[in-house]
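Hi P.,

Sorry for the delay on this. The queue was packed all week, but I finally got your sequence through. Input first:
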Amino acid sequence: MTDAPRWKDESFWADISEKLVSVALAAAVVLTAWSGFQASKWSGVQANSYAAAGATRTESIRLSNLAGQQAQIDVSLFVDWVAAIFDEIEAGTVTLGNAAEYRPDRGSLSGFLFLRMRDEFKPAIEAWLATDPINNDDAPASPFAMDEYRLAAQEQADALRAEAEALSQTAREANQTSDNYVLTGVLFAGVLFFGGIANSLKKMQNRMVVLAIAILILVASAFVLLRFPIEI
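Then the structure:
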């Protein structure tokens, strides 16, 4: 009488199921620890990015306020200069046939104001005067309409605001990644649950079904986990 094939023996499948459960549980424990580690790291990235975004946005606001103050100075000096130059033209102390030929007189109020305009503003007003706004109806209404009028502080503020938004986006993405790792940790906990009860089932068919569920969750979760970014 020949011996029955070993795979028909229930003890054979019991031994296989125990080994598979051990492997599944060990893998789930390792991957759960990895998910927790990565969730913690990405939470750190989120916190750091939000902190950097806040500091950058604060500096952007400071520079934007500075640019606003500089613009007010430019406008005030320009208005006072225009009023002074026309008063001097009316009084006959200044002759200005072509604004493009204007040269400030240090001894006059208009010259005093012109020479004290900010260096950053001077290219714009000089370019505006070159259009001869007194005689040229097509000239821009003021130096502030010229391409030469630039506020470096405002440009820096805009750049910092964009940088702050990029940092905030990085923080949001890091938060989502951290949540994703936490979710996989929950899935691996399911593997531990099903793997833990598998060997307690006496009926081999039920044991193999539960074990198959555990392995399926393990493989699917591991596949998803491999697609997540890694922070070291």
